[in-house]
Amino acid sequence: MSLIKQLWIAIIALLLLSFIGSLAISITTSRDYIEQEVRIKNADNATALALSMSQLDKDLVTLELLIAAQFDTGYYRRITLRNTDDSVLIERSAEEYSGDVPAWFRQLIEFDVPNGTATIQDGWRQYGTLELESQHSFAYASLWRSMLELAAWFLLAGVISLAIATVIVRGIKHPLSRVVTQAQDISARRFTTIKEPRTLELRQVTQAMNVLSANVHQMLSHESHKLDELRRHLQHDRVTGALNRDVFMGKLSSQLGSEDARATGMLIMVRVQALESLNEQLGYAATDQLLNTLVTQLGQLDSASAEPMVGRLNGSDFIFMLPLMDDVEELRIQVMAALAEVAATQPDVEVYLPTAIVPYAPHDDRGTLLATLDDALAQAESLTSFEQVVVRQRKRISLYSSHAEWRNALEAAILVGPELAYFPVVDAHGDIIHYECPARLLLGGEWQTAGVFIPWITRFEMEPALDLAVVKKALANLEDDLKPVGINLSAASITNTQFVNELRTLLAAHPLLAKQLCFEVPATLSTHAIGSLRGLCTALRPLGCTFGIEHVGAEFTKLADLHDVGLAYLKMDSSLIHQLHASNEQQTIVRGMATLCHSLGIQVIGEGVADDEEIACLFRVGVDGATGPGVRL
């Protein structure tokens, strides 16, 4: 039984006990008082009437007239005159007054009052005995009215007390409900914090649980930063902080093999010409500072990523991957400005930074891209001008020639509705955890992958419309085949209030199907987007939906900010999984991430698994699931 119900029962029981006790004491006291008063009255009236009769002639007619006159006042129940041999000479009696008093009440009270008796004298001898009994039936009515008035008062007091108790209980219930919700969140490993209530006991409990949540947040922050430091130590160049060659190549292969929007963009390769000569002129410290400035300036070209993808291929060659960029001329201007900033840090020497820019697209061959970059870089080195930037344009077949055509085509495709591809996510036993369902849109007469249209969707701010259409398609598919599916939601959608309201309304209309939906959000979330994700989870979790984060790599440090969201799973970026079996350092990082996630009850899934060796190693280091081209049912 809930505490609130127990409180109500206690209040009602207390009121009933008070009423019954007050009623019993009141009736008992009143009955004793009435009995005492009637007893005295009987005795006094009997004595007074007997004295009057003793002074009269002992004529029965006279005595009877006197008794009749006294009896007719209505205050007597019975008056009897007996002679010395106890025979009745005169008797007057009346029926008991019952009025509207219930019989059970009269039986419950039942006054026990002795008759008043007195002796009638005739001179010096006894003439007879007078017995008198007052009419006390009216006392029943008086007590009955008193009981009704007392009951009415207690009823009124009960209503007032319950009204006051309702206000008090509501004041207790709201913070108590928050405390209960927080306790349930903590039991589900969602370490939330709440405002401390005013009630002392609840405040103490809340303080303890808030401290627990704060400690978990601190622990997560500490452990995730330790893992990030280990990752940086193992994967990054110690001088410049750029990615090592092998790590960058793994990330590049992962991006080229994916179908999301980041598989389209630009590759920039910069060579620090005559690095040995610069070392001699500037010294190692100044040269290292120059290289650091170069990496920083390249990284600032990508403002969307949590960690820009800048790699160091060798001592003098740096490569930069800039997703979602398609304006070559704008990029060229930005790159030249960045390189000028780098050169300006060393005005006393000539710093030559030949640069090559090449666009990339999904499923491009990595070797071909690098060969193109090398060729363009060689051409840049041969230039005599200070601005040594060469752009190698690639002939691309665009579906549409203008922005207006793209917008119209996307609106029409969303109106027709997307199709969903199904890629399995399996556990160590080969059982299905859920299916990844990236969207396809009908553009140019064919179903196109996300890498083709997502950049344009983002440019036209059509993410909420697309995501809502994808959810509708997923619900329609679930009606035919009830299997759990994972759907991507963009950061723009989860921060859109209208989208969240429409999504909740849509899912509330399909409660059974909603339980089969897993919503995945990108790891590159801003602080505002994390707050929106928290609100979205709170709104949709009662419907049975689950939530996860995909493409988690360097963004793992944000896990501490998501400890109270209630994530069901986390998908590690394929760059962490690529060639996992061949790298002890990667295994250490992945194992640490899995352990930390498991402490929060979060499943860990590896993305982009390529072969059986990676799958076996993945499960060996503690990951719960795998997805990618190497997963076969």
UniProtKB/TrEMBL annotation:
GO terms for molecular function: cyclic-guanylate-specific phosphodiesterase activity. SUPFAM superfamilies: EAL domain-like (SSF141868), Nucleotide cyclase (SSF55073). CDD domains: EAL. Residues 399-633 form the EAL domain. Residues 170-221 form the HAMP domain. Keywords: Membrane, Transmembrane, Transmembrane helix. One of its GO terms (cellular component) is membrane. The chain crosses the membrane at residues 7-27, 150-169. InterPro entries: Cyclic-di-GMP_PDE-like, EAL_dom, EAL_sf, GGDEF_dom, HAMP_dom, LapD_MoxY_N, LapD_MoxY_peri_C, Nucleotide_cyclase. Residues 263-394 form the GGDEF domain. GO terms for biological process: signal transduction. PANTHER family: CYCLIC DI-GMP PHOSPHODIESTERASE PDEB, CYCLIC DI-GMP PHOSPHODIESTERASE PDEF. This is EAL domain-containing protein. It comes from Vreelandella sedimenti.
